[in-house]
């Protein structure tokens, strides 16, 4: 796959807030039908990177290319218009609103003429039901408040919504962070479904055990800089975990502890 076919590419992207460098010389690629995992602990620069991709912030230097075209998003709406959908950890849902109402929020079907147009509730329910069913997501009652769903179910609804409304790139911010093992597995299954539909997926996580089974390429960040960038064929889970855990630092600590014990 050539670089020009990438949905998103960053080349040496840097971002500072005042005197604090949040991201320095970071390069990555997001291809259609692949999952690019961005891994790092708190303060690694993951949030800054996705905010640049999602149009929340603009980079200071380097290049952001969307389908080969150098781009600076003026707003999140501009990124969304280019097919980049971001699902943040807090999901930006209205907890007391029904599942179907949240699903069509911002893209509501209406009927009527001019300023007298009204929400087409029947069509909205049908859109939500069909889209969720198409992804194999079972929600018993679309009338229930979305806040009553489990964390895993809410993530799955958000993924199905992005797929339905034509996203080319799906950015997921720590989608499994607050979930148990079973629910995390369910969410990762739908991540794979989105990938298999040809979307480019950016999975932000600090958990290599969640990233490795679904990832095609891995970008490791530490204190805003690239710690490593790998395709799946170039790294195994144990090495990914070792690097995430600060392998060299842990080895040095172990050596120091052994000297103390002597």
UniProtKB/TrEMBL annotation:
SUPFAM superfamilies: P-loop containing nucleoside triphosphate hydrolases (SSF52540). Pfam families: ABC_tran. Keywords: ATP-binding, Nucleotide-binding. Residues 8-248 form the ABC transporter domain. GO terms for molecular function: ATP binding; ATP hydrolysis activity. This is Fructose import ATP-binding protein FrcA. It comes from Nocardia macrotermitis. The lineage of its organism: Bacteria, Bacillati, Actinomycetota, Actinomycetes, Mycobacteriales.
């Amino acid at each position: 796959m050539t670089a020009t076919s990438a949905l998103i590419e960053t080349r040496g992207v840097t971002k500072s807030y005042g005197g604090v460098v949040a991201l320095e010389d970071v390069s990555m690629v997001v291809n259609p039908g692949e999952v690019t995992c961005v891994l790092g602990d708190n303060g690694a620069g993951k949030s800054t990177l996705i905010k640049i991709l999602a149009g929340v912030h603009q980079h200071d230097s380097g290049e952001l290319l969307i389908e080969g075209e150098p781009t600076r998003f003026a707003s999140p709406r501009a990124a969304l218009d280019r097919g980049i959908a971001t699902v943040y950890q807090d999901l930006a849902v209205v907890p007391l609103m029904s599942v179907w109402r949240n699903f069509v929020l911002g893209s509501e079907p209406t009927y009527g003429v001019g300023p007298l147009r009204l929400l087409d509730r029947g069509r909205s329910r049908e859109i939500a039901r069909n889209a969720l069913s198409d992804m194999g997501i079972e929600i018993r009652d679309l009338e229930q408040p979305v806040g009553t769903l489990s964390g895993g179910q809410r993530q799955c609804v958000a993924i199905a919504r992005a797929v339905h409304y034509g996203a080319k790139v799906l950015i997921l911010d720590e989608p499994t962070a607050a979930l148990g093992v079973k629910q995390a597995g369910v969410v990762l299954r739908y991540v794979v479904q989105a990938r298999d539909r040809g979307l480019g997926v950016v999975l932000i996580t600090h958990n290599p055990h969640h990233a490795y089974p679904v990832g095609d390429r891995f970008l490791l960040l530490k204190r805003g800089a690239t710690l490593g960038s790998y395709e799946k064929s170039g790294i195994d889970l144990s090495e990914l975990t070792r690097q995430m855990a600060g392998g060299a630092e842990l080895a040095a600590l172990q050596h120091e502890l052994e000297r103390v014990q002597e």
